[in-house]
Amino acid sequence: MLKWIVGAVVIALILVLFLRRRNGKRHSKPWHKRLTDWLFARELAVDRERPPRPAGRPQRRARPAAAPHRAARTDPDQTQYIRPSAAPRPTEIALSYAADVDSPAYPIPVSKLPFRVGARADCDYVLDNDTISREHFELFRDAYGELCVRNLSRTNGIIPINEQSGLLDEPILEPGRVIPIDRETGTLRFWAGELFFTLALVPASTNRRRR
Questions:
Q1: What is the pTM of this model?
Q2: Mean pLDDT of successive 10-residue segments in the chain (211 residues)?
Q3: What is the DSSP string of 42-84?
């Protein structure tokens, strides 16, 4: 009986030693290493269960090419939109003089520009007056096409009238001084010596336009 008990104890010890040795080989790594391996293995198992991802990004559908820009159609008669609605009315130069503002006026026919007025015989219009210089003034158009009067007298000069106020301006005694016609009224009134002159732009006469 004793032999059986001793034999069982020996066999139990052998089994314990065998199992302990086996477990020792299996758990030779530290516990944190074993935990890392277990988590990694679990992550691999989950990845295997997921459906495989496509190899690359899905290609975007190419946008259709923009239609070529068409040039705007040119109206062959588009110049009509920039043409003036009405042609400027032709005008004539009317020049006259009088002994006073309220006295009867005498017209002076202006046939050309420049047009010179004075007491000398070679002027375009000769005035026999003691207060009129040999070459007193002339009419001309400046570089902008505006009708002007240029003083030529060194003695009596010209005294223009302000068309806005109706008052006399400062006398002009310097030869070569230019006075433009008033754009709004188309009129220039002035004294030359003791004579009162009126220069105006008036509509062209019907008979001259028919020619």
A1: 0.56
A2: 73 72 58 66 62 58 58 48 53 93 94 95 96 97 94 94 90 94 93 96 67 45
A3: HHHHHHHHSPPPPSSPPPPPPPPPPPPPPPPPPPTTGGGGSS-
